[in-house]
Amino acid sequence: MDLRSDTVTKPTAAMRQAMVEAEVGDDVYGDDPTVNALQDKAAKLLGKEAGLFVATGTQSNLCATLAHCQRGDEILVGDKYHIFRDEAGGAAVLGGVMMAPISTATSGAMLADDIAAAVKPDDAHCAMSRLLCLENTVAGQVQSVANIDEMAAAGRAYGLAVHLDGARLMNAVVKLGIPPAEIVDAVDTVSLCLSKGLGTPAGSVLVGPTDFIRRAHRIRKLVGGGMRQIGIVAAAGIHALDHHINRLADDHANALRLAERLAQVKAIHVEPDLVETNMVFITLPDGAADGLRAHLAARGILLGGGARQIRLVTHLDITRDDIDLLSEEIFQYFA
Ligand SMILES: Cc1ncc(COP(=O)(O)O)c(C=O)c1O
């Protein structure tokens, strides 16, 4: 039982079958029909003109930021967002693009006023503010349509383009019960990961206007991301979009069930009210985390790292029975 992340899922038998049967071609020539079908499908689903299949979420965000920005430009981004904290500073390292972090609330949102205040004046001393990066979900927290619209409008008022890191966008879609295209209507470009809750072995899709995707395609080549008969993997993505979106509701129910159970344990601080999708954050007394992790690991249960706070993520390979078994193990450990 592995709760470290929703990236640990293994492809289902049906997904593997779809991969085996995929029609393929050389995608560097644009000849892979399965890749083309996935790109079109994702673009349509998200209400944008075109799509680009890429290896990872990090590569997707890198292609996006570099297609939006030139050297000397600046990205405004939440200080807790993946693009700022967890992508090796790719836009800065490879693109000469500066990142200006904006304070992110527990809800995952940035304040419109903070966005406005972070935009630099047209002054030779300053980098040129060019792009606003949003994220949804943020550590499992859903950003509502109104929220996204407000943040995007704050950037647009200063002429910024808006990119959304939607690594777990479909968790937000299922939670809100709103069509994906409506949620991302206010943003220009979206990166969607297929290998998180959607359960494929690899791959993300970047969507946006046709000319933007053409530039992103060149950058994908630049970073060595042009792949050949990659329809084998794209087939998993099509299968996931067809079969694995609605079932995310099970992961959300399991996360809530886990949080409600663990709230009964005195040594654990957890707020079930904050569990919106598939992530539960528990806080333990000083020095207790390593002991709990080791105890559970010895029983084949893996938890995420962290000195006091541990993230537990539900996904395709975690059942309701697993949640009950895990809760029981934790009750016994602290009994
Ligand atoms: C919010 C967010 N964006 C982007 C990524 C990057 O995805 P990848 O690991 O496929 O590069 C992750 C990975 O966990 C993520 O959580």
Describe the fold and architecture.
This protein has 335 residues and is α/β, with parallel strands linked by helices. The protein is 41% helix and 15% strand. The chain has helices at 13-20, 33-45, 57-68, 82-85, 90-95, 112-118, 145-156, 169-176, 180-183, 210-222, 231-243, 248-262, 289-297, 320-334, and strands at residues 50-54, 73-78, 98-102, 128-135, 161-166, 189-193, 204-208, 279-283, 309-313. It has a seven-stranded mixed sheet with strand order 1-7-6-5-4-2-3, sandwiched between helices. Strands 8-9 form a two-stranded antiparallel sheet. Helix 7 (145-156) links the parallel strand 4 and strand 5 (161-166). The longest helix has 15 residues, at 248-262. Residues 56-58, 82, 135, 165, 167, 193, 195, 204 line the site of pyridoxal-5'-phosphate. Pyridoxal-5'-phosphate is lined by residues 56-58, 82, 135, 165, 167, 193, 195, 204.
Outline:
globular
Q: In whole angstroms, how far apart are the ends?
A: 22 Å
- CATH topology of the largest domain, which one? Aspartate Aminotransferase, domain 2
| Count of alpha/pi helices | 14
Proportion of residues in β-strands = 5-15%
CATH secondary-structure class of the largest domain: Alpha Beta
Task: Give the % helix.
Answer: 40-55%
Counted up, domains total 2
Bound molecules: pyridoxal-5'-phosphate
CATH architect. name of the largest domain: 3-Layer(aba) Sandwich
Rg from C-alpha positions? 20 Å
Unreliable stretches covering 5 or more consecutive residues: none
